[in-house]
Amino acid sequence: MHPQGGDHRTQARYFARLAVLDGAALTATQEELARAVLEVVLLAGLPPYNIEAAAEGEETGVGLTPVQGRRHALRVLWRQDATTVLHLPDELVHAQQAAMHQALRTKLSAHQFWVEDGPAGQAPVVLGLTRPGGT
Q1: What is this structure's pTM?
Q2: pLDDT for 134 beyond 60
Q3: Distance of CA 33 to the CA centre of its chain
């Protein structure tokens, strides 16, 4: 993970910009949300996507992307190992992707994030640190 270690919060702060897919720019609100989401991802034992490692061929992990037209929302995506994807039938790749997205949705909801309702298996969209009216 972080080359200098640290707790989950430190790790999440380190990966907040590195985990953004395609180098997209985040608003200040999205960056705060990214740090919080990645802290949960790290607590779950999942690797965050790292754009620097991806340049060397390691693309597996939880990535983030801003939702176009929604300055406060982030889509949370699982990036499967590219080599594995080449060796599996498409239906298994899609099933694994859907399962990971559902697991991320469940984990983020359990941590009280405001997650947009969406079809099972679709990459979750996080709208805020807490659901309005939540605790």
Answers
A1: 0.88
A2: no
A3: 11
